[in-house]
Amino acid sequence: MVKFYESSTVFQYNWHQVAQAFWQRYPNPHSSHVLSEDTVFREVRDNKLFTKRLLTKTNRVPKWGERFINNPKVGIIEESVVDPKTRTLTTYTRNVGYTKVMSVVEKVVYRESDDNPNCTIAVRSGWVDSQVFGFKHAIQAFGVERFRKNCQQMILGFNHVLSHLYPKHGQHETNVSSEKSSVQEAKDKLKSAAKRASDLVMPKANVMVASCQD
C-alpha cells in the first residue's frame, strides 16, 4: 500500500505575492539540494498558466540505500497550473529516476485563506511507494520521513524568499513592534519621573504636616 502524507502551511503573504514568489524560490539558503531548474513548457490556456519544469535535486542516501542508488542526483518533473480567477496555484511533482526504488508524487495547492485574504494556505499531499521486494515498507517509511523534513526546509526557504521580495511586509511588522516598544519605554519613563517627583515631594510634605501639628 502507498504511504500518504499531508500537511498545511499558512504563509503571511497574500496569494498574488506567493504566486509571484513561487517562480523565484531557488536559490535560497535552505535549498542547497536543488541543483538546477529549467522551464521546458509554458502556455496560457483558458486564462490559466500551465508550466512544466525540470529540476535536478540531490539527497543524501543512507548506507543501506547505497545498494539501490549509486548516484544521489535525481530528476524531478514539476507541472503547475495558475488560475487567477479562483486564486489557486496547483503543483504536481514526481521523480523520473529510481522510480522502482522509490517514487514520490507530490501535490500542493496554494490558495487564499478563507479567514484572512492577506494570508495564503498551502496544502501539501505526498504519496511514497517502492517496488523493492523485501524492503518496500522500510523504504516507504524512510521516504515519508525524508518528505516531511524536505517540507520543513521548503517552508523555511520559501519564507526567506518572500521576506526578501516583499521587505515592506516584514518592515511593517517590525515597525509595529518598534512602536509598541517606544510606547512602553515612554510609559516607563513617565513612571520613573513620577516616582522621582514623588520622592522629592514627600519629605517636604512631611515637614509641612509636622509644622502644622506643632
UniProtKB/TrEMBL annotation:
**Which PROSITE patterns does the protein's record reference?**
PRELI_MSF1
Entry coiled-coil feature ranges = none
Q: Name one GO cellular component term.
A: mitochondrial intermembrane space
Q: Where is the PRELI/MSF1 domain?
A: 2-170
InterPro entries in the cross-refs:
PRELI/MSF1_dom (IPR006797), Slowmo/Ups (IPR037365)
What's the protein here called?
A: Protein preli-like
Q: Provide the species name.
A: Thrips palmi
